[in-house]
What we know:
The protein contains five helices and no strands. It is mainly alpha-helical. Keywords: DNA-binding.
Amino acid sequence: MTQIYDPPHPGETLREDVLPALEITVTDAAKQLGVTRAALSRVLNCRAAISPEMALRIENWLGVENGGRADAWVAQQAAYDLWQARKAGAPTVQRAAIPH
């Protein structure tokens, strides 16, 4: 299985790619998304995850045809979260005894 190497936080994608492409400020993006500037800033600065609700807001904002699919944003967040958990070290558990 190929392992993804250090996937970006989806907030980084929004900050580095989406907002500049739209030539929009954080304040204006927050207004259009219907969230506070502080809430969006936390996502953009990788201090908060993109929730399913935020992913749906992005989908409605950008449109599916422009890369705004909610499931893609949630998948990117999950990939980032899983990578961070793997870096932190897998918890020690007893392997299940699966009968053959």
